[in-house]
Structures are given as structure tokens and as C-alpha cells.
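User: Hey, quick favor. My workstation is busy. Could you predict this chain's structure for me?
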Amino acid sequence: MRAVMEWIHELLNNVLQWVESLGYFGILIGLLIEVIPSEVVLGFGGYLVWKGDISFWGAVLFGTLGAVGQNWILYAIGRYGGRPIVEKYGKYIKIKKKHVDKAETWFNKFGAGIVFTARFVPVMRQVISIPAGMARMNFGLFTLLTALASLPWSILFIYLGKSLGENWDQIDEKAGAYVQPAILIAIALLIVYVLFKFVRARRKSV
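Assistant: No problem, here it is.
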């Protein structure tokens, strides 16, 4: 077990060194392929801002682009590969069938608006892109909603990483106080969206 933990620690260090060497593009590619969690990449990006290696808004821009790019890939998997591809290869990209089932249920129940709100829910923020692709959701709307949700997420974790400086690796402890309210706000927005759809449907039926 100790050997495994040491290997993981070494892998994390190597990935972060690689991100640091590439600067903005390290953040972009790190989020695009997400070998390590996006919160870690963004938090480390904030640390690079603290060091003066990159600018805050540059890190936010490339963080948002990386998140959108990753979800484009997942959208394409859903649209052109569908469930068979997910069930066969999902384990290689850390996506489980049960998560796709849940995301598809959410998408069918709440519609396109869930693409925005699900971005603030762990695991679902990536997986929701697959049923969106399977449903052939309008790509422009999908991109817009993904970007609008990814932007504050990038700002939050880069800001926290910058604030923590050399202690950026404690970001999980610091983030909890911000992530929980973000989830509550996302749920509130979802409720407003569902009510809006309900009222609009009633007006059309009259």
C-alpha cells in the first residue's frame, strides 16, 4: 500500500511539474485530459499566479477553455459513440455506467438546463455531457452553458490556489466552504429553470 501511495505521489509531482513547464497550456491540457482532478490543476494554476509565472485572468481563461474542451470530447463520445462506447471504454476515462444512467435520467427529466447546474456537482459535471451528446443537444447552447458554469469554477479554484500560495495543496480544506454554497445556488437555479419550463408549457397548452 505504501508503495502505491508513493507511486501516486510521484505521478502527481511529475504531472504538476509538466503543467508548470507549459504554463497556460499546461492548465489547458491538464484539464482537457484530467489525469488528476480539475480542482488540483486549477489550484496549482493559482499557485503559479502567486509565484508570478502567469497572470490570474490568463489562468482563468485557459482553465475555462480546458474544461470546455474536455466536455466537447465527452459530448462527442455521447453523440457519435453512444451508450455502447461508454459501457465498453468508460472505465478508461473514469466514467461508470451508473453515473451515465443517473446523468441521462437528469437530462431527460430537466432538459438542457441541467448541463449548467450539474457542473457544480462532483462527477456529474463531466458525465452530464454524454447524455447531452446522445440527445444531440444544440452544440452552441451546450458550449455556452458549459462555459458559463466552468468560468466561476475556474475563478474560484485559481483564486484559492493564489490565496494559499505555497500551501495551495490544502485547497480541499479551503474549498469546502465555497463549494457547498455553489451547489445550493446551482440547485436553486435548477428549480427556477424547471418552474420556468412548467409555466411556459402551461401557457402553450392554454
